[in-house]
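--- STAGE predict ---
source: upstream dedup step, 1 unique chain passed
mode: sequence only
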Amino acid sequence: MSRELAGRRALVTGSAGGIGGAIAAELLTQGADVLGLDVHEGGPAPVLVADLSDGESTERVVAEARSRLGEVDILVNCAGMSEPEAATRITPASYHRTLQVNLHAPVMLMSRLGESMVQAGYGRIVNITSIHGKLSEPLSLTYDISKAGLEAATRTFALELAPHGVLVNAVAPGFVATQMSIVEGENELESEWFQSIYVQHARLPLRRAAQPEEIAALVAWLVSERNSYLTGQTVTVDGGLSVRF
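--- STAGE serialize ---
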């Protein structure tokens, strides 16, 4: 069993399940000391319960993470949310809540924890974005904006932190088998339209959704010392979905 992250200290947001839970589990397997952050208890790692939709929560999260871990070597921003709304009927509360969780909180965590990584001369940051960072669909305006913004923030942080040994990247999944696939009680991955368009007619070339563990494996490499030269990039992991005309 590889223990290449032994001695590293990681904060993983959205760790109670789904992609975040799989990432926390993989980093633990690799030997890292992991603290999760989620609005709910649960998941493979100890959890700091916090609501990132509260704009004042990030300073408390940073202080608590440092208290429990010491200085953080690895930050994975995975917490996210989506509230579908028509572009012409956006409600301010939903708009601001989604941007706060998906964009503003990750940026502030990168800012505060990135500062200590700079001082240490080492760090790894990975933001979980989405193919929505570059592609769009109806009812997803706010989600699209949040993911595109986080990819832009990834590039800027990468530029500024690179001279100090801190690498910053994003991973953009496509369809992944998680709770976010369940919309209004229906799992879209099991729906007739998904099975017909994406599987039978191969709109999704690999003809299946990803498992969270497949995303976690890439993240584990990105935050390891084996990644010594990749920074400022968004790595798309979508089974070939975005390369098809």
